Amino acid sequence: NLQESESENKLDGETASDSESKSEFGGSPPVPTSDDTPEVLNRALSNLSSRWKNWWVRGILTLAMITFFFIIIYLGPMVLMTIVMCVQIKCFHEIITIGYNVYHSYDLPWFRTLSWYFLLCVNYFFYGETVTDYFFTLVQREEPLRILSKYHRFISFALYLTGFCMFVLSLVKKHYRLQFYMFGWTHVTLLIVVTQSHLIIHNLFEGMIWFIVPISCVICNDIMAYMFGFFFGRTPLIKLSPKKTWEGFIGGFFATVLFGLLLSYVMSGYRCFTCPVEFNNDSNSFTVDCEPSELFQLQEYNIPLVLQSVVGWKTVRMYPFQIHSIALSTFASLIGPFGGFFASGFKRAFKIKDFANTIPGHGGIMDRFDCQYLMATFVNVYIASFIRGPNPSKLIQQFLTLRPDQQLHIFNTLKAHLVDKGMLGSLEDA
């Protein structure tokens, strides 16, 4: 029996050192889970088997979440940024709470306070950078904001350094190892959660379409992989997630690519989705009005000869963004799920079913956003690598904040450059 128990532990990825750590920290029993399904649904679905009951609960709650997603999109960028902030805080809370439960760290001196203090410091740094970057004119107009912006990084470093010193002062001899475990736990959580949510907001400022399409592709892939796996799944995909199947993985991929093309086509025709989100200093509000870039103007593409005989067309009219949507949906389908597998491995390592029980049938907020954070990083890197170019409006804003002698120097340098290129003379003749 002892050998069987040891082999089961090894299958779960537990080693001897893990067992020693658990005994040192008081053990790490599974976080208890309960049936969090609303009583109304329990009564309505009482005659169904557990498999179909779970299917209906997940389906109904999924529709509710999609409806909420549409509502916050309708309410505009400011509400979206607020929701991203709230989701970030909730995800941080769920992961930190697991650390409390696993390592029985409730009695560590200052640890709860320090965890949330570091969250505050990191958010102050990232959101301060965002305000300085996207609200440049407003910052320069208000004296307190201008001072905070000028010394923002020094203030951020001083705040973090204060927390670091507080942590060192809180070290207790009998808890050294546990305290450093939790210090690392906190910082890895900040890296995963706060950094990624910051990138989501940056994607939003590039245009609502860069926020909505990637998130929708991950949602679509999650739903369609579940549907294909539920009805056709036979072949296990990965041991970390026993319920995931190859049928669901492949079916989700094709469904998501098709969905991405259709959604991109619909959204590319509306300026409110395609224009960058900018702050209007006159009205002190966000605006999303502009002349659509080439990405969002219909163009004609030649269909490869191999496919012409199949589809019967020689050319097709589509938005260039739809081509980029193929890359986004492919990542959401093939690489995005590995964020979920990573989360599954994390939960198996600590013998928990879900991060929390916030959403009936779905688990915690982090259970729903494990793939979204990986997607946010990809979209930000993709935009920086293939889409974003120099922004003339930001350069002009910075130019206007310089001293007159500096402005004159740049003007003369630019004038000499244009004369050498032969562009200034042609403009004067015109």
Automatic annotation (TrEMBL):
Keywords associated with the record: Lipid biosynthesis, Lipid metabolism, Membrane, Nucleotidyltransferase, Phospholipid biosynthesis, Phospholipid metabolism, Transferase, Transmembrane, Transmembrane helix
Lineage start: Eukaryota, Metazoa, Chordata, Craniata, Vertebrata
Family: Belongs to the CDS family.
GO cellular component: endoplasmic reticulum membrane
Topology in membrane: Multi-pass membrane protein
Reaction(s) this enzyme catalyzes, per UniProt: 1-octadecanoyl-2-(9Z,12Z-octadecadienoyl)-sn-glycero-3-phosphate + CTP + H(+) = 1-octadecanoyl-2-(9Z,12Z-octadecadienoyl)-sn-glycero-3-cytidine-5'-diphosphate + diphosphate; 1-octadecanoyl-2-(9Z-octadecenoyl)-sn-glycero-3-phosphate + CTP + H(+) = 1-octadecanoyl-2-(9Z-octadecenoyl)-sn-glycero-3-cytidine-5'-diphosphate + diphosphate; 1-octadecanoyl-2-(5Z,8Z,11Z,14Z-eicosatetraenoyl)-sn-glycero-3-phosphate + CTP + H(+) = 1-octadecanoyl-2-(5Z,8Z,11Z,14Z-eicosatetraenoyl)-sn-glycero-3-cytidine-5'-diphosphate + diphosphate; 1,2-di-(5Z,8Z,11Z,14Z)-eicosatetraenoyl-sn-glycero-3-phosphate + CTP + H(+) = 1,2-di-(5Z,8Z,11Z,14Z-eicosatetraenoyl)-sn-glycero-3-cytidine-5'-diphosphate + diphosphate
Stated name of the protein: Phosphatidate cytidylyltransferase
BP terms from Gene Ontology: CDP-diacylglycerol biosynthetic process
Keyword Repeat set for record: no
Transmembrane segment boundaries: 110-127, 154-172, 179-201, 207-233, 245-267, 321-343
Comp. bias (Basic and acidic residues): 7-23
Metabolic or biological pathway: Lipid metabolism; Phospholipid metabolism; CDP-diacylglycerol biosynthesis; CDP-diacylglycerol from sn-glycerol 3-phosphate: step 3/3
Positions of region (Disordered): 1-38
Organism the protein comes from: Circaetus pectoralis (black-chested snake-eagle)
Subcellular location: Membrane
E.C. number(s) listed in UniProt: 2.7.7.41
GO MF annotations, alphabetized: phosphatidate cytidylyltransferase activity
